[in-house]
Amino acid sequence: MFKATPRASGYLRTGYAQDFALTGTRVERFSLFIFVLALLLFPLVASAFQLDIACQVFLATIGSLSLMLLTGYCGQISLGHSGLLAAGAFTVGVLFREAHAPFWITLPLAAVVGGVLGVVFGLPSLRLRGLYLAVSTLALHFVVIYLGGEYESKRGFSTGIMVDPPTIGGYEIASPRIWYFILLSAAVVSLFICLNLMRSRTGRAWRAIRDHETVAEALGIGIAGYKVLAFVISSAMTAVAGALFAYYRNFVSVEAFSLFLTIQYAAMIIIGGMGSLLGALLGAFFVTVFPYIIEAGLMALPGAQRYANVLFAVNYAAFGVVMIAFLILEPLGLVGIWRRIQSYFLLWPFKYRPASGSRK
Amino acid sequence: MQLFVNIIVLASIYALIACGYVLIYRVSRVLNLAHGELMMLGAYLLLTVGSTFSGHPFIAIAVAVVLSACVGILVYVFLMRKMTGEMVLAAVLTTIALGILLRGLVVLIWSAQFQYPIKSLGFVNESIALPGGARVSTFAALIVLTAAVVYVSLFVFLRFGRWGVRMRAAGQSPLLAAQRGINLHAVYALAWSLSTLTGSLAGMLMALDSGLDATMIIIGLKAFPAALVGGLDSLAGALVGSLIVASAEVLLIHFVDPLLSDVVPFLVLIAMLFARPWGLLGTREELDRV
């Protein structure tokens, strides 16, 4: 969907190694360095509330990256994302309750469960396309949620499953600062997984499948295998995100994994910008922070207390409006806006790039 | 016998809702996932209109029905018209976003409490004894009746009505239909208004029968498998699908586990998608690309 980012003249790639490099120019390296530094220093100045939001953003990042792999890059629509998150969270909850398993067993197992579910979610994709695939994943979401709810009620955890924080060598991980760094590194690791997948054979095969299935097959790409692989990798990552969520909140309940969560993740990749990892990051940040902005804005109005009990309704309505606005006015999402700003400055004082002889 | 009656009532509810999905999909190839919310909106409109026109319940119902058809047209003109020619996912997500917006607005306007529009209209919901010892409430019987009337009139309309033929033409080939001078936007708007109208009818009758709050959306969503099982572009299929889904649901709830209620329609849906994705009576189309 997107071509290479617009660049000022003078930067030409002269070898394949440069094509694969994650950072190209000195400015890129410098700004990346500043950004990482800011991320590392953030917990020193942030309040507990801000730390909590940051942790949620990181969790959402993992989820939105994995959905971006599947929908943005491989072109397979999925509306079962919160079902997969629930599967990861429930793996942790069940293993902890039934076997008191430590986190270094539950997390890999959550990934395995996610992967197996990925096969189940992915199998319909071999026969179904577009809308029908979306519907089948939606149906599987309800099945997963039903199984979770069944476990809760049969075992008598009708309000939800409590999960103790994980321990390393007798030391309990409960401090928000430590969680910040754990979730930050988890998000960074998943970002690198995605980046490397995209730079490799697998990522290129996925994009070929997204752009044109028949042509991809004619090029010798095994469609079935790569589609299921996309589902497996994406689902495993999502399930790990769900498992981390369970540990972070110390609590698992089907209530948390409603259809609305799926819609939020779909909104992340739409609002962020389809087919771009940067879009997944921006979207995760935007969608996670958005309700808090609405809340702060509402509380700043006169007579704030009156609005307190309709807050969720305002959130819903505002979220719907923003989503519609992006879908209609800016289908390329935040990344599209970002690219437009970039090329505005690069091309200044001109408005359009030359018609020929340039990278699009 | 009571089980049988329950199946028929539930099937009529599903059928009444499912024909909304079918109408829009058949004409414009858009899956409207906001149908449940539009249905709920129709029921809430009745609540408001009912308190304005208190004492004239039938005028109130008529006004609410007309209003809900207008809502459908507005949705098309201001929202879905902009999405023509976009990706499938984008169009579906737009309807989902609309649904979320409506959910929020409904709670903001009418609050989240459980409401009984039947009180403001002054009807009494008596239960009717049927032969065989079964009982059915008046409005449940009315739902069955309405579903029958709606389906018969839709069949007649699509087969013989001038606009019905136009709708079918637009569904078959928008390009050729436009070439023949059919106003596509008008046809799509009509499809949206009809779909919202039938959905709202279902919503209103259910609200009159058993009260109204935001959980009504779930029923709207559960009717969707009924539409798909029968074939998303076939009205007759929606009837058959509703019967299948409703009987599976009622029987499984009765004999296996009440908790299954929310998941049964989707289990049927999965089975159907594996066996015959285009539905029982649907046309086998080239399932569209992303």
What does this structure look like?
Chain A is globular. The N and C termini of chain A lie close together (12 Å). Chain A has one domain. In chain A, strand 2 (167-168) and strand 3 form a beta hairpin. Chain A has 360 residues and is mainly alpha-helical. In chain A, helix 3 packs across helix 12 (277-300) and helix 5 runs antiparallel to helix 10 (223-249). A two-stranded antiparallel sheet of chain A has the order 1-4. A two-stranded antiparallel ribbon of chain A has the order 2-3. Helices cover 71% and strands 2% of the residues of chain A. Chain B is an all-alpha fold. Chain B has one domain (16-226). In chain B, 72% of the residues lie in helices and 2% in strands. Chain B contains 12 helices and 2 strands, in the order H-H-H-H-H-E-E-H-H-H-H-H-H-H. In chain B, strands 1-2 form a two-stranded antiparallel sheet. Chain B starts with a helix and ends in a 15-residue tail after the last helix. Chains A and B meet through helix 6, helix 11 and helix 13 of A and helix 4, helix 10 and helix 12 of B.
In the residues of chain A, how many domains can be counted? 1
Cα-to-Cα separation, first versus last residue of chain B = 46 Å
What form of chain B results from the Cα inertia axes? globular
Radius of gyration of chain B: 19 Å
Share of residues in strands of chain B: under 5%
The residue ranges of chain B in which pLDDT falls below 50 over 5 or more consecutive positions are none
**Succession of helices and strands of chain B:** HHHHHEEHHHHHHH
Largest sheet of chain B: 2 strands, antiparallel
Overall pLDDT of chain B, averaged?
Answer: 86
- Strand order within the widest beta sheet of chain A: 1-4
Assign the structural class of chain B, choosing from mainly alpha, mainly beta, alpha/beta, alpha+beta, or little secondary structure: mainly alpha
Instruction: Calculate the terminal CA-CA distance of chain A, rounded to whole Å.
Output: 12 Å
